[in-house]
Amino acid sequence: MKRLRAGVTTLAVAGALLTGTTVAASAAGRETTATCEYPYVCFIKNGNIIGHFQDVTSGWQPLPSKPTAPITVVNTRHDDVAYIRWVGGTTACLVPQSTFTVTGGQLDAVRISSSATC
């Protein structure tokens, strides 16, 4: 096993690993979906929608800004999953009708897939 140098490299790797594991999905609640309507995937920061997407694509759609955590991502779609990507390349998948709370890092893209499962 290769040892990492202490300092910035270790912190960067630890941060990247934590980013991927500090995100949780749950069923979308009424209070969240009231502001994000079907069939959108919405990015919410400080109670305001800062981006919403509805097109199924084979590639990544860049976010208009690169928002930093905390961010709530809501997938109101009934049969489609949504992938989100952090600046460092880490990705997460949101099942249909779910809410994702991003607690660390900076997002840069979204991709909506016609698949019903991650």
CATH class: Mainly Beta
The SSE order reads HEHEEEEEEEE
What is the helical fraction, as a range of percent?
Answer: 10-25%
**What spatial form do the alpha-carbon principal axes imply?**
globular
Instruction: Predict the CATH topology.
Output: Gamma-B Crystallin, domain 1
Structural class by helix and strand composition: alpha+beta
Integer count of domains: 1
CATH architecture: Sandwich
Protein name: Peptidase inhibitor family I36 protein
Keywords: Signal
Organism: Streptomyces demainii
Q: How does this structure look, described?
A:
This protein is α+β, with helices and mostly antiparallel strands. The protein has a single domain, classed as Gamma-B Crystallin, domain 1 (Sandwich), CATH 2.60.20. It has helices at residues 8-21, 30-33; strands at residues 24-27, 41-45, 48-53, 61-62, 71-75, 81-86, 91-94, 98-102, 107-113. The N and C termini lie far apart (31 Å). This is Peptidase inhibitor family I36 protein. Residues 1-27 form the signal peptide.
